[in-house]
TrEMBL record:
Keywords: Endonuclease, Hydrolase, Nuclease. One of its GO terms (molecular function) is zinc ion binding. The keyword DNA-binding does not apply. It comes from Ruegeria meonggei. This is HNH endonuclease. The keyword Nuclease applies. InterPro entries: HNH (IPR002711), HNH_nuc (IPR003615), ScoMcrA_N (IPR058807). It comes from the Bacteria. SMART domains: HNHc.
Length: 460
């Protein structure tokens, strides 16, 4: 019995067993290691050439037994010769069948992104996640890493972010891949915040230098949305329609982050029936563009009108500009001075507070020298207006007045933002400085918080 006895049918039988057992179990059964250089390519799949030849010997017929690594003669070259004589295709150094484990630098970027966005991680089709995937792929290329056609694509990066949840003490689930804990992942996830931020900053500087020096990073297309109309808008040769698709996709992500159903209602069918320009103009004219629902996204039909003003009547363009100014005023911010200025301006515009603002159930975190939160100035303004100069805890008038004559009260989050509290009018109270200190530091602060909650429940 020799390798020359092996037939085409026995090779195919060995490949079938390989598929059934999987690579690891197959190699272990026959005592072979993974092929380093040459692989059999059969029906679009790669197989370890020497192991397949050894196993195929057992499928030749009665009396034939498999050959393992010890009793298989001729080495890798002989196995390749057998396969090629049978007219099978042998490939030298094929692309990886699996992607490599994540490096520390890749994990730093992923962890910084996770901590900035948790618990509302942007979707696979969102621009922030696509940009993160590009950064991580660049980092991998700089380290000489490569993989198959799914290498560090948005889907894979999103899955890694879901896996990181297993290290997050604030996450109540178990996270993907919870049974596999990697020391490097745990080490990166528990880095001091400042150290993590500086490390991410350094990596991004190196990525920029790599690209500026001519370094090439494989591009991966952003996953397409499920909606057929959105896919058509993205593929259109009209910039206005491309921008409309981006607006609607961002709106979906924002609604999803807010815990709302991310549907687009009748919008896709209306766009298909009447055209993008008609739908945008109608929404802006009627002040029903839907932006108020998703103001945190920063995207709007109004912006499309201003960017493509030549396609709309002048009065529609002027309406859009005015609304954009209002949207900018209502845009959440992480800057305290800007928040105060916006709050003051909104308080001077009663029409902007005719209804309680939605706020944000999961305010975005920004990692700086410390963690700061992006807050909605309308929530602050509405809370101050509701209190009308009277502390919502002690029920006393504000201890002094600001230069503009309004009573000085501070905005307090009952469930702190750092503990996952929402930036909403239901979770905010306007309190005097003394009560604010007590709510944070008094020995009976829990009891005071319950009193405040009860009083708010009677007014909100």
């Amino acid at each position: 019995m020799s390798l020359s006895d092996i037939t085409t049918a026995s090779i195919i039988a060995a490949c079938d067993e390989y598929d059934e057992l999987g690579k690891t179990r197959f190699l272990k059964k026959y005592g072979f290691g993974s092929s380093k250089k040459y692989h059999l390519l059969h029906n679009g799949k790669y197989y370890d050439s020497k192991a397949i030849v050894g196993a195929a010997h057992g499928y030749v017929g009665p009396g034939f037994v498999p050959l393992n690594a010890k009793n298989s003669s001729g080495g890798q070259g002989r196995a390749v010769q057998v396969l090629e004589n049978l007219r099978f295709e042998v490939v030298e150094n094929p692309p990886p069948t699996r992607n490599p484990d994540w490096s520390r630098d890749e994990l730093i970027l992923a962890t910084e992104f996770y901590l900035r966005h948790a618990p509302s991680i942007p979707s696979k089709t969102s621009k922030p996640l696509t940009a993160l995937a590009d950064e991580i792929r660049a980092t991998a290329v700089m380290q000489g890493l490569s993989g198959n056609d799914t290498f560090r694509n948005p889907n894979g990066v999103y899955m890694k972010l879901m896996e990181l949840r297993k290290y997050d003490e604030n996450y109540k689930g178990i996270g993907l891949g919870h049974e596999r804990v990697r020391d490097v992942e745990l080490e990166v996830f528990t880095l001091p915040e400042r150290e993590l931020l500086l490390a991410a900053y350094d990596i991004r500087n190196r990525i920029q230098a790599f690209r500026e020096s001519g370094g090439q990073v494989p591009k991966v297309e952003r996953p397409l949305p499920k909606s057929e109309v959105l896919r058509e808008l993205l593929a259109s040769d009209k910039p206005l329609e491309n921008q409309l698709a981006e607006v609607l996709i961002d709106w979906q992500d924002t609604k999803r982050d807010f815990g709302r159903f991310p549907g687009l209602g009748r919008e896709p069918s209306q766009i298909r029936k009447h055209g993008a320009v008609h739908v945008i103009e109608k929404r802006v004219r009627s002040r029903a563009s839907g932006f108020d629902e998703v103001s945190a996204s920063g995207k709007s039909y109004e912006q499309i009108v201003v960017d493509h003003f030549e396609q709309f009547p002048n009065e529609v363009v002027e309406t859009a500009k005015k609304r954009l100014a209002d949207f900018d005023l209502a845009m959440p911010t992480d800057n305290r001075d800007e928040l105060e200025k916006k709050t003051k301006a909104i308080l001077s515009r009663p029409e902007m507070l005719s209804e309680p603002p939605a706020g944000n159930p999961s305010p975005k975190k920004e990692l700086a020298l410390g963690t700061v939160y992006v807050r909605d100035p309308r929530v602050v303004a509405y809370t101050q207006q509701r209190a009308n100069g009277v502390c919502e805890l002690c029920q006393q008038k504000a201890p002094f007045r600001r230069p503009d004559g309004t009573g000085y009260l501070e905005t307090h989050h009952i469930l702190p933002l750092a503990e996952g509290g929402p930036d909403t009018v239901e979770n905010c109270a306007a309190v005097c400085p003394n009560c604010h200190r007590a709510l944070h530091s008094a020995n009976d602060k829990e009891g005071l918080a319950e009193v405040l909650k009860k009083r708010l429940s009677d007014t909100v």
